[in-house]
């Protein structure tokens, strides 16, 4: 990270986004884009809660703890502010504050230190999976939207998430040596966290975005119907190969083995996405 990034704590600024240039006609009538952006804004805006849990968990580690507090948390919160601003520019009649309050009332109950992994090294592995999930989410959202400002914002966030992954992976390597983490422990952590990607905070955020988007409307579609539409939309642009590479990296497999398992794992992942 450069000196300017270090001093600022951010790679880009919210003021760099020209919300006046939004072509609302490309997104205003899309319930799918609204729900994808709004639910993401909820999760990112609650970043200070889970980020503080991590800062506390890594207290005493000057390098990792310092980066979490000074850079990672600041960037996550900026993502939330930017996504919220986008929602409010395009859908000004939507009560973002009310919807977010409902989301956070539920989300805060599950966002506890009990959700963290038993060791710091394993938690760094878990964070790699989380960052893989966010990286691929914003890359897919960038692909499914043709609104220029949203595409710009998604790519900025996606770039931040890639850098976050690199930091967490670096810290994982340090803790791997200290804690003598073996591959089965790493695999178990990867599996646990990957299984949660379509649950918990993302699902809570989507449900509250859907509820407030359609509240009081007689023609409101069922939540299950909406979630399936979103899943189908994102599935078509999901960067599966990137997701597999990021997920496998903490296992530190020999090159010949990694290449050997990528194809069967890719087939399994594609089957899961299609079902």
UniProtKB/TrEMBL annotation:
Gene3D superfamilies in the cross-refs: Ribonucleotide Reductase, subunit A
Superkingdom: Bacteria
Source species: Extensimonas vulgaris
An MF annotation (GO) of this entry: oxidoreductase activity
Protein name per Swiss-Prot or TrEMBL: Fatty acid desaturase
InterPro entries: Ferritin-like_SF (IPR009078), RNR-like (IPR012348)
Segments forming a coiled coil: none
């Amino acid at each position: 990270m450069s000196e300017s990034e270090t001093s600022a704590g951010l790679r880009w600024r919210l003021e760099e986004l020209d919300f006046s240039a939004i072509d609302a006609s490309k997104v205003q009538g899309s319930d799918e884009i609204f729900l994808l952006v709004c639910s993401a804004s909820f999760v990112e805006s609650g970043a200070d809660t889970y980020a503080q849990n991590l800062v506390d968990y890594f207290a005493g580690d000057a390098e990792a703890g310092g980066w979490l507090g000074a850079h990672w948390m600041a960037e996550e919160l900026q993502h939330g502010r930017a996504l919220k601003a986008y929602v409010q520019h395009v859908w000004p009649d939507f009560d973002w504050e009310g919807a977010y309050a409902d989301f956070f009332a539920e989300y805060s109950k599950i966002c506890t230190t009990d959700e963290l992994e038993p060791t710091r090294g394993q938690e760094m592995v878990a964070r790699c999976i989380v960052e893989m999930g966010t990286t691929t989410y914003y890359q897919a959202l960038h692909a499914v939207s043709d609104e220029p400002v949203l595409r710009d914002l998604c790519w900025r966030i996606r770039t931040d998430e890639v850098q976050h992954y690199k930091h967490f992976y670096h810290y994982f390597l340090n803790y791997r040596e200290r804690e003598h983490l073996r591959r089965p422990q790493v695999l178990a952590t990867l599996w646990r966290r990957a299984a949660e990607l379509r649950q918990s905070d993302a699902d809570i955020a989507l449900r509250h975005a859907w509820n407030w988007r359609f509240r009081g409307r007689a023609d409101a579609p069922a939540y299950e119907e909406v979630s399936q539409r979103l899943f189908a939309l994102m599935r078509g642009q999901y960067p599966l190969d990137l997701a597999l590479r990021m997920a496998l990296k903490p296992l530190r497999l020999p090159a010949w083995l990694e290449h050997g398992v990528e194809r069967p794992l890719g087939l399994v992942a594609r089957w899961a996405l299609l079902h």
